Amino acid sequence: MPCAMPKKGGLVLGTLDMLILRVLSRGEFHGWGITEKLEQLSKSALRVEEGSLYPALYRMEDKGWLKSEWRVSDKGQRAKFYSLTRSGRKQLEAEKESWDRMTAIIAQVMES
Amino acid sequence: MSVLQQFLRRLGRLFRRDRIDRDMAEEIQFHLRQRTASHVEDGMSPDEARYAALRKFGGVEQLKERAREQRGLPLIEQLVADIRFAGRSLKKHPGFTAVAVLTLGLGIGANTALFSAVNTVLLRPLPARDPERLAYISSPRGENFSYPFYQRLRAAMTSFADLSAVQFRISRRELADAASDGAGESVVTQGATGNYFTTLGVPALLGRTFVPADDQPGASAPVVVISHALWQRRFGGDPHVIGRALRLDVLPVTVIGVMPSEFVGFQADVQPEVWWPLQMLTQFDRQTPGMVNEGVLWLMLFGRLRDGVSPDQARAEATTFYRAEMEARVAQNPNRPSAERERILAQTIDLRSGATGFVAARNQFRQPLTVLMIAVGIVLLIASTNLAGLLLARGTARQREFAVRAALGAGRTRIVRLLVTESLLLAGLGGVLGWLLAQWGTAFLTGFLAQTTAPVAIVPDGTVLLFTTVVSLLAGILFGLAPAWRLSEIDLATAMKAQGGGAIAGANSRLQPALVIAQVALAVLLLAGAGLFVRTLHNLQTGEIGFARENLVTFSLDTARWRPAPVEQMGTLRNALTELRALPGVRAVTIGGAGMLSGSGITMDFVPEGYAAMADEEIVARVVLAGPDFFATLGVPLLGGRDFLRTDEAATLPDGRPAPARVAIIGESLARKYFGATNPLGRTLTINGATKYSLEIVGIAKDTRYSSDLRAPVPVQFYLPFFGNDFPMQGTVYLRTTQSAAAFEADLRRALARVDSRLAPRDLRSMDQTIDHLLVRERIIAQLTGFFSAFALLLACLGLYGLLAFRVAQRTREIGVRVALGATLRDVVMLVLRQGLALVLAGGLLGVLAAFGATRFVAALLHGVTPADPMTFALVLAILLAVALLACWLPARRAARVNPVIALRSE
């Protein structure tokens, strides 16, 4: 499962999808835009493995969570913009919930 | 999103692959440009920035590949790629592809066509109610019986719920509207008893079918039933056709019913358009003996078995009844010679299943079709072993390719899939060709069979087509796969070094020669059969018929249909002859009785004067009716005495009928047999019929085959004047012309119309056409087995060539060594030829032995040659050697060209 890599080592498993969905819940972005946004939102702590981004995007589009559209970017170049679909929003909810649950369990274990 | 939606999406992407690739490339390029720009903003130089961007991104191509696999349907895409590759590969080896596709196509097509023909002609059940309960009466003589016999049988048989009689073939009559006066259209009609349709159990589509009340003698308002085709064609499907008044020949009739379109009478191969009740026969022709005469055999008898009665019970009852009849007949005349008595008592009848109806062609063609099926089977066998050998050899030659692929990471599954795709593509092409050939083949066979009796429509049978295609596919896959399975057994490194043969060749090397020998043997077997059939045809075509066949045109004339008085009939025919004689281009005209060369005719018992017959001897002769100028027109030499004169036929009886002439001309074998050395002229033949009378012999003529078929021995015969007998007045006219039949027809019709407007020629043909027509069966067999055996020989020699070429390629090095050590050109060539000829001789001998055993089964189809005819066999072996020598010659030449230096170097 593709993952996001924090800039300073450490591995966060299987969260790339969720992060992408989160970014796209805020608006429509092309692939580069998602990369920049993730960097920005995490205050540069997250650098997406770019080799994983596009496969993830394609996979999620295939599953129907995203849809894409070719548009002319603000710089006048042609780029593919992704946006969330309704099932994508539902998936985001589901993943957030599952993530919250998992972190709670881990926290419980660590503090016991 | 459901799995199905996902799948459909991916399927859709398959068709837009190029565009999707471009999009993906563009998207990635955009990303890279942005990253590069970002780096440049951070202070890197443009080049450095670009490299850094690429490095960060990771492998672009791998990404694309992964993405493609993820988003697409890799299985299908690979399949498409495999198919493309298979296509290219097949195109690179056009020879192999052509042979393989032809083999498959011919196998599927020929098989389907023949099986469909067999199915139609031999096996298709009758479209009637419960056809398995139907049975028909047959005798060794044939399937035709007399009406009085039918009546007695029907009364006596309790096993049948009902017994019906139908006219054995068809008669053509004129159909017109009741009001109209002119000539009507010629339609195919059939007479049937009142219970015909009810026995078959098929109701009418419109109106009703016959009931027994319709079939009474002297019915004042006769009714007819018409066929669906006639209803559409003549009456345009008019629903008010029931009750319509028509005229059939000269009789007013009313239409009471229309049969459904799929209705086929009991005789499945004739297509009557009008059925009339049997009793109408006497109204068509008042003088006809058909309803009362025991000797007029014109009806086919069939019936429906009573419930609970088995066919065997019915058969026993029928044979018992018949035996009783024969015994009664013998008892009638105690003075019969015992030979004749034996002959009568030996007659039997049999009951045959009517489930498939009766098709005259069936009996004619049962054996030839079976023979053809076997021939096709043999060709198929040769072809498939050839194909198998080809595929195996090709697989072996590609070991290196497979090893390389395996080394590059192709799994065994992938390679297997590649091979399967190739085989499937081949099989697919073969299947298409096979389908085309099946269509053409069935049309061809239909045309052939249509020349015999009535058209039998054959269409390619879907099940057979499917079956043979599936079998070919499976065979193709199996043999295509064989090399791939072996891949895991060999060392990849060795295989890659191997020289077009290598490690796998060993296993095949025993199988292939055995295959070639088997193929040659089978081809020889077929050739022998074909040779025998071709000679049979030739013998029959050129056999002595006793009269001159060149430029001889025949047609039949029937004056009985509009029932003139006998004197009028005679007059009409005589006038017709006079008119015809006057036509330009006609050198001679005559008229004779019916049934030329067909084996049917008049037979009479007679007593030659002065001949001391032995106690049991039967004296019987064929009687030929000879009109004026008969012998001159037909070119039959008169060996003694004179021809018939007008004076021989002059007298008439009080009721206007011609008085029988009291003269005869005898054939030479009759003269020899019964008169020996004494001069038969002036002597008499005594006929013991209803009345006893004598015929004076006035001439001797050469024997002809006029009254016997082409295969039977020439019978003992004598001639009576045509116009001096009391047999029904229809005859066959013979014209010796200088023109072909077709060019002549218009003049002919006009000449006849001048005599009587209703007089028209039927079955206008030349004598050569008549003979050809009689030999359709023999021609089919000879042509088709000839074709198939030639094809078989070709295939066998292809197999031989392939094997030898392969061997030469394998042993190139060895040959190089031999040549280097001093072998001459001749030695090398002999090396190859010896191998080849050894195989050919082995196969040839095996084939000849097989033929000796097998051809005796077709002895019944042969004429003039024995099943083990040495000349045919010798010819076959000669052909085999000639063709095989050619097949060996090419590899031998290639071996001779081997340059030892190159051969030794290549490894």
Helix content of chain A: 40-55%
Succession of helices and strands of chain A: EHEHEHEEH
Name the shape of chain B in a single word. elongated
Tell me, rounded to a whole number, the average pLDDT of chain B: 81
Radius of gyration of chain B over alpha carbons?
A: 39 Å
Most extensive interface between two protein chains, with residue counts: A-B, 21 and 24 residues
N-to-C span of chain A = 30 Å
Specify the number of helices of chain B.
Answer: 28
Proportion of residues in helical segments of chain B: 40-55%
From the spread of the alpha carbons, the general shape of chain A counts as globular
Largest sheet of chain B: 8 strands, mixed
Strand residues, percent of chain B? 5-15%
Kindly, what is the distance between the CA atoms of the first and last residues of chain B, rounded to a whole number of angstroms?
59 Å
- Spatial ordering of strands, largest sheet of chain A: 2-5-4
Care to count the β-strands of chain A? 5
Largest beta-sheet characterization of chain A: 3 strands, antiparallel
Supply the helix-strand structural class of chain A.
alpha+beta
